[in-house]
Specification:
The complex is a heterodimer of chains A (about 600) and B (about 250). With about 600 residues, chain A is an alpha/beta fold. A five-stranded parallel beta sheet of chain A has the order 9-5-4-13-20, with helices on one face. In chain A, helix 1 runs parallel beside helix 11 (about 410-430). Classes of the chains: A alpha/beta (about 600), B alpha+beta (about 250).
Chain lengths: ~600, ~250
């Protein structure tokens, strides 16, 4: 890479610094053509693509990439391979996949994006197979597929119940093999903007506490979801929505943030995910009366209705007193027999035994709905481009809008790998015509972060961050959970605003900069409170029920007034909401029956 | 109950132990206890965490002198003595630390890797060895249009090894790794074997030769600690024994 100008120093602080030479007095500035933030499936797939393009790239992640939440994905990845025939011997195709996805989204997904994803799905599954992913197989040797919620076809390709694990390890192997630089355990603190472009970011190196600057022509945000804004979440503890907060603070709008998925089956007590694959394999939900209650709510799809439908049904049963003490129902697999459970669902069996002391071969699993996925995210177009030139987003942190108001199981792994590749391709195309970024601005950005952290560290007595975080997650689950209403949400918003006020007085006892995990959690919480407020404001404004957003005071879907995307952005410290139209394509909105 | 935690950072002359008292509620894991420690006792404690569901492999540490995932280890079970795992002895677990097993849980960093702070170790060496065995798929044929076919029966053996989450519990439990810092260790060898037996690779014993060195297949002394501590039941011992047998058959050897 060309040097920036005078006073060039060559940096040696990190082993990844290929071709680095920048104008700076700080020895912690790194130049790469493309910076990828996040090391899950999206980030790694993009890294592989950037690496093959010959551009210089680097990946920044707050954890080792193999510890990313993608690793926890269980059930599978949807693609119309058609390896397993449908009920009437029919063959699957991408259009049926697209239809199920759009219907599942309650017609809020952008249909051009859905079409793109579903068309790319089969190639994506094959691509992982070609890279070495071990998929479960049919007797004829082809990749196995199982039925999943809301799908008209057994379309979900799987690797037992460890699909995310197998895919993540494969992509990590590929990226490692290409010697792509990875900045592990770096927490990104801000995006750097210059002349209306995103030209990099700052990050704190967690192990040393040092602030680094990264200069690039493009930044891809791939940081995953914000599940930990809620309590009772299936998400890893690291899913704090950092990328969304970074984008929001850089003036980039977020989209459809009121749509938060509650997964029907999370283990009672710890809310660890019990895969939809369990019902795909024939598992059934049973209330305390011994009834298979889904027959009542979704006569055709029964236990394999989409997640929003099943989560609401369980919550309704619990509210009517048909749950067990503590608020749960049973997921019964016992009739599947031990062979099938050991072969297809070994991971969830192990989790149920380890964390609930229940062996699903012998007895039903206690489950309750829990926060699982964020349909909303950074507003990105079909190419992953955001409103800010140079900033792109893909995966769960983005809202390219393939899931609309409710995501189908098996579509999120698919989205990560499809758009990890496609958005990287778009970046490769754009970067060629991007001017060299001005390297001075990043020094100012570093100073800003350093002085902010100094201020926080110098605070004397104040409340503890952990209490505020607990209050926030409780408010979000209780007041912006499965069933919502205007009055309760207004109360919830007030509580969140109070917490944001309190936040400016919170303190950290640990004053060391190196390996200060409380400081990292403080920075995470700052973003999470903002995201909580965003979800609250968007949810209050949407006066209808659609997909995961269920309002008892507005029980019906209102296509006339509400078939539109919500946008929210930060302008002069105010959150402003606007709307934009949904892209309708082949499928006209109609009533959603399962 | 009490949590007795190893504390160290580089400005300290030597490590010490902090003890923190807490309520042992059902379902409380060692990770949960550490989080309480951080929130209620000392927010400077350092430990790795991510999934909290025993799938990501971040939180392996030495718990009551056995390498385990903190998120999966139930405090009550430890106190009841249900989780005792007999291991072949090695230096790190032989170190004399007093703790009362009926009411205390002893938490220390994973052995055989340098401590950065408290319970956080530098995993570079572990991943360097992993990288050394070239953990990337090398198919025998050119890329087909669709998937390569695989016999479902072959998946069963492969899964034994693909299930590895690279938590390094085995590495921290291996007496050989304790004595010989150059030994590639159980996880890297099991990973190498995973590629060797992948029917899509079909490279004969070529793959196995990568570790056909004294610090590879031939360094294992079959203590078996790796198998006993693995949270995913991966059997590196079987991989190592089979690899040696195949190499010996081909006239390769130590």
């Amino acid at each position: 890479m060309e040097s920036g100008g005078d006073n060039v120093i060559v940096l040696k602080s990190l082993k990844h610094d290929n071709e680095v030479s920048v104008t700076s007095t700080v020895e912690s500035i790194h130049y790469h053509d493309v910076i990828i933030i996040g090391g899950g499936l999206t980030g790694l797939r993009a890294a592989f693509q950037i690496s093959n393009s010959g551009l210089s790239g680097a990946l920044i992640s707050k954890v080792h990439p193999l510890r990313s939440h993608s690793v926890a994905a269980q059930g599978g990845m949807n693609a119309s391979l058609g390896n397993v025939p449908g009920d009437d011997g029919a063959s699957d195709d991408w259009k049926m996949h697209a239809y199920d996805t759009v219907k599942g989204s309650d017609y809020l997904a952008d249909q051009d994006a859905v079409e793109k994803m579903c068309r790319e799905a089969t190639a994506t599954v094959y691509e992982l197979e070609h890279m070495g992913t071990v998929w479960s197989r049919l007797e004829n040797g082809k990749i196995a597929q199982r039925p999943f919620g809301g799908a008209g076809f057994p379309r979900t390709c799987y690797a037992a119940d460890r699909t995310g694990h197998n895919a993540l390890h494969t992509l990590y192997e590929q990226v490692l093999n290409s010697n792509f630089p990875i900045y592990e355990e770096f927490f990104v603190t801000s995006l750097v903007k210059d002349k209306g472009r995103c030209i990099g970011c700052t990050a704190i190196e967690i192990m040393t506490g040092k602030i680094h600057g990264f200069i690039s022509k493009a930044v891809l945000m791939a940081t995953g979801g914000f599940g930990r804004v809620f309590n009772r979440s299936t998400n890893a503890l690291i899913n704090t929505g950092d990328g969304l907060a970074l984008a929001l603070n850089a003036g980039v709008p977020l989209k459809d943030m009121e749509f938060v998925q509650f997964h029907p089956t999370t283990l009672y007590g710890t809310n660890i995910l019990m895969s939809e694959g369990a019902r795909g394999e024939g598992g059934v939900l049973i209330n305390n009366q011994g009834e298979r209650f889904m027959e009542k709510y979704a006569p055709n799809s029964v236990d394999l209705a989409p997640r929003d439908v099943v989560a609401r049904s369980i919550e309704q049963e619990i509210r009517e007193g048909k749950g067990y003490d503590g608020g749960y129902v049973h997921l019964d697999l016992t009739h599947l027999g031990s062979d099938r459970i050991m072969e297809r669902l070994p991971g969830i069996r192990q989790i149920a035994m380890d964390f609930a002391g229940v062996d699903p071969i012998e007895e039903p699993i206690p489950i309750q709905p829990g926060q699982h996925y964020s349909m909303g995210g950074i507003d990105a177009d079909i190419n992953g481009a955001t409103m800010l030139s140079g900033l792109y987003a893909a995966g769960e942190c983005a809202c390219i809008s393939v899931h609309g108001a409710n995501r189908l199981g098996g579509n999120s792994l698919l989205e990560t790998v499809v758009f990890g590749r496609l958005v990287a391709d778009k970046i490769i195309e754009d970067v060629n015509s991007t001017p060299e970024p001005d390297t001075q601005v990043v020094n100012l950005a570093i100073n800003e972060v350093e002085s902010k952290i100094k201020d926080v560290m110098e605070r004397k007595k104040g409340a503890n961050i952990f209490r505020v975080r607990d209050e926030m997650t409780e408010t979000m689950f209780q007041k912006f959970g499965i069933f919502r209403d205007g009055q309760t949400m207004e109360k919830g918003l007030k509580e969140i605003l109070n917490m944001e006020n309190k936040f400016s007085h919170l303190t950290i006892n640990n004053k060391d900069l190196a390996v200060n995990q409380t400081l990292i959690q403080f920075l995470e919480l700052e973003g999470m409170l903002k995201i909580a407020e965003v979800v609250a404001r968007c949810a209050i404004k949407r006066k209808e029920s659609r997909g995961s957003h269920t309002r008892t005071d507005y029980p019906d879907r209102d296509d006339k007034n509400c078939l539109k995307h919500t946008l929210i952005e930060l302008e002069d410290k105010n959150l402003n909401i606007s709307y934009k139209p949904v892209t309708i394509g082949m499928f006209e909105p109609k009533e959603r029956v399962y | 109950m009490k949590l007795k935690v190893y504390r160290y950072h580089k400005s300290m002359e030597k490590p010490h132990y902090d003890t923190f008292e807490l309520e042992p509620k059902p379902g409380l894991t060692v990770l949960g206890a550490l989080i309480q420690f951080q929130q209620n006792f000392d927010d400077s404690i350092a430990f790795h965490y991510s999934c909290r569901g025993a799938v990501c492999g971040t939180c392996a540490m030495l718990i009551n002198k056995v390498p385990r995932l903190a998120c999966r280890t139930q405090v009550e079970s430890l106190l009841n003595g249900d989780l005792n795992i007999p291991l072949s002895s090695y230096h790190a677990i032989g170190e004399n630390v007093e703790w009362n097993q009926k009411e205390e849980v002893l938490v220390e960093p994973l052995p055989h890797l340098p401590v950065i702070k408290d319970l956080i170790v530098d995993m570079d060496k572990f991943f360097d060895y992993y990288k050394e065995i070239e953990p990337v798929f090398k198919p025998a044929d050119s890329t087909p249009e669709k998937e390569r076919l695989m016999d479902p029966a072959s998946i069963l053996e492969l899964e034994l090894y693909t299930n590895c989450i690279l938590c390094a519990a085995c590495f921290g439990s291996c007496p050989v790794d304790g004595n010989d810092p150059e030994y590639l260790g159980p996880a890297a060898l099991a990973k190498l074997y995973r590629f060797h037996i992948d029917p899509r690779e079909a490279n004969g014993i070529e793959r196995l030769k990568t570790a056909d060195i004294p610090r590879g297949w031939w360094d294992c002394k079959f203590h078996g600690n790796c198998r006993r501590v693995c949270p995913k039941d991966v059997p590196p011992l079987i991989a190592i024994a089979k690899a040696r047998e195949q190499l010996e058959k081909e006239g390769e050897g130590p």
